[in-house]
Amino acid sequence: SIKHIFKFTLTPSRFLVKHSVRAVHKQNNILYGKPIAERILNRCINECEQFNEQYHRRPKLVAILVGGNESSKLYVRNKQRIAEHVGIGFQVINHLMHIAPSNLIDTINRLNNDDTVDGIILQLPLPLHLVDKTEKFIDAIRSDKDVDGHTTSNYNSYRQTSIPPITIPVVAAVREILLEINEPLQGKD
């Protein structure tokens, strides 16, 4: 599914695997993160090609940035670089720091209704005057387009089922690493 591709290429956890995890020690063995990341990226490239063949377009992810937070800009640029590498169309919508809450909701609703947009990221943190409405903005994102898995419905789904429609990105990264080292997951909560 398209969200599977987004989860494995654009989330913080995937950057963790690609850039931060140099080695994980397990019983005198060393697991190098870079080969795992390369396998994941290659799988995502193949899935994007299949998506393109099926739908005659590239999957598209849109990141909404509010304000000029330099860390957020860098983070989104990294997501864009990886997305473009695997074949995902990536658009950044920049809003000024003092955007009205209703205008931000309008942007989210427009993206929700755009059939060419497959995933939406609301880059956090938001400016101080919007922080108290963060949950409202996140919950305005359609759950099937919520790449980060932050909407209340996706979060509740994660907590209540063993196979959520969207796996929270960090959980997906840890699961991928454990599968790579053949660590049994059955019975471990």
UniProtKB/TrEMBL annotation:
Residues 31-148 form the Tetrahydrofolate dehydrogenase/cyclohydrolase catalytic domain. Pathway: One-carbon metabolism; tetrahydrofolate interconversion. Coiled coil: none annotated. It is an enzyme of class 3 (hydrolase). GO terms for cellular component: cytosol. It comes from the Eukaryota. One of its GO terms (molecular function) is methylenetetrahydrofolate dehydrogenase (NADP+) activity. Keywords: Hydrolase, Multifunctional enzyme, NADP, One-carbon metabolism, Oxidoreductase. It catalyses: (6R)-5,10-methenyltetrahydrofolate + H2O = (6R)-10-formyltetrahydrofolate + H(+). InterPro entries: Aminoacid_DH-like_N_sf, THF_DH/CycHdrlase, THF_DH/CycHdrlase_cat_dom. GO terms for biological process: tetrahydrofolate interconversion. Its EC number is 3.5.4.9. PANTHER family: C-1-TETRAHYDROFOLATE SYNTHASE, CYTOPLASMIC, C-1-TETRAHYDROFOLATE SYNTHASE, CYTOPLASMIC-RELATED. Homodimer. This is methenyltetrahydrofolate cyclohydrolase. It comes from Rotaria magnacalcarata.
